[in-house]
């Protein structure tokens, strides 16, 4: 592809100009306000409704595992095709609507796919409740962002859960969407969000989901392969260390990707994360990630948020640099 055709393709997809940088800034400044969510929901809600409908139609106990596996492949293909297709169409329409300001319109369509503000807004109340030694409020707050049994967690357990969620979500909520936005514009961003939503809803190992969600889980692993490692490196840079722990412990996580950012955060803070965790009354004996203290508190959550914010700023620099190079 010659330079003229390459630039034309990148412009049509919304990669050139400071689209990603402006999208990051918009997300950090306003996020997706609760009032907007209450009124119109969030764009990923469309993916969730489609996935739920496909699951209701095609993932019935009477169907064979082979049928459900094929149906799961069809489902994720539909989700990605719709997400990427709508993103491509929107990027093509913007120049016709806004002319030379089309990049700003594309940034407005991209920023809901990022979660800097939302993640900070969800983790900070956990730290605040722990600082007040209000365990019940801390459990309630952390229960909004993790799937484990929060009623059994003490203050240290709540702090670990919050930091683990913050570090893992740095990848699939920020680093990965940004990576795909930079790599393939709006189609890449919203195609990725479709994959990630499908994985969170059906990409589980329980009997109900194992066959139907297999394709979604595997595709999510592939989509996060590079962003997870970039995200881990960014957290180490932001935290001023953690490289050795990241390289040593990343593969201790059950996910091939989530361990990179979690181990990076643990190494940067000098703490241990993961360990035994209860889900639906059953204890999963997970290996520890990191080294150092296990008895964490509000101060550790605040330190993690500081590392997280610096990491987000580093991603701003990356996004600005890519725009300048292109």
Overview of the structural elements:
- The chain is mostly helical and 326 residues long.
- The chain has one domain (3-325).
- It contains 14 helices and 2 strands.
- It has helices at residues 3-13, 19-30, 34-40, 44-58, 65-98, 102-110, 116-131, 135-143, 155-202, 214-223, 225-239, 243-249, 258-269, 298-325, and strands spanning 272-279, 282-290.
- It has a two-stranded antiparallel ribbon.
- Helix 7 (116-131) runs antiparallel to helix 8 (135-143) and helix 7 runs antiparallel to helix 14 (298-325).
- The two termini are 15 Å apart.
- 47% of the residues are buried.
Strand content: 5-15%
Biggest sheet overview:
2 strands, antiparallel
Query: How many separate structural domains?
Result: 1
Contiguous uncertain segments of 5+ residues: none
Distance between the termini: 15 Å
Give the helix tally. Answer: 14
Query: What is the rounded Rg?
Result: 20 Å
- Helical residue percent band: over 70%
Structural class: mainly alpha
Number of strands: 2
Average pLDDT for all residues: 92
Shape: globular
Largest sheet, order of strands side by side?
1-2
Q: What string, H for helix and E for strand, traces the elements in order?
A: HHHHHHHHHHHHHEEH
Main location: membrane
Protein name: Cobalamin biosynthesis protein CobD
Family: Belongs to the CobD/CbiB family.
Pfam families: CobD_Cbib
Provide tags for this entry.
single chain; 326 residues; mainly alpha; two-stranded antiparallel sheet; 14 helices; 5% strand
């Amino acid at each position: 592809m010659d330079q003229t055709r390459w630039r034309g393709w990148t412009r049509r997809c919304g990669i050139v100009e400071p689209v990603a940088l402006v999208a990051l800034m918009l997300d950090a400044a306003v996020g997706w306000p609760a009032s907007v969510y209450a009124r119109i929901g969030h764009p990923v809600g469309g993916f969730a409704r489609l996935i739920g409908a496909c699951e209701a139609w095609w993932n019935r106990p009477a169907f064979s595992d082979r049928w459900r596996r094929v149906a799961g492949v069809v489902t994720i293909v539909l989700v990605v095709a719709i997400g990427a297709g709508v993103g491509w169409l929107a990027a093509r329409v913007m120049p016709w609507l806004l002319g030379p300001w089309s990049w700003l319109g594309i940034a407005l369509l991209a920023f809901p796919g990022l979660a800097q503000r939302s993640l900070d807004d969800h983790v900070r109340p956990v730290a605040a409740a722990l600082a007040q030694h209000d365990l019940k409020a801390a459990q309630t707050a952390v229960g909004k962002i993790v799937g484990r049994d929060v009623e059994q967690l003490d203050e240290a357990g709540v702090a670990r859960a919050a930091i683990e969620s913050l570090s893992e979500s740095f990848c699939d909520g920020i680093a990965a969407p940004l990576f795909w936005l930079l790599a393939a514009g709006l189609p890449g961003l919203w195609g990725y969000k479709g994959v990630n939503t499908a994985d969170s809803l059906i990409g589980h190992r329980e009997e109900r989901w194992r066959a139907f969600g297999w394709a979604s889980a595997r595709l999510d692993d592939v989509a996060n392969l590079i962003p997870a490692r970039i995200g881990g490196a960014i957290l180490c840079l932001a935290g001023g260390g953690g490289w050795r722990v990241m390289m040593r412990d990343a593969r201790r996580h059950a996910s091939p990707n989530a361990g990179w950012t979690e181990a990076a955060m643990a190494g940067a803070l000098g703490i241990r994360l993961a360990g035994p965790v209860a889900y639906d009354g059953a204890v999963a004996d997970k290996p520890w990630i990191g080294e150092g203290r296990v008895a964490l508190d509000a101060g550790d959550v605040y330190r993690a948020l500081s590392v997280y914010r610096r990491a987000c700023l580093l991603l701003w620099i990356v996004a600005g640099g890519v725009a300048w190079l292109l």
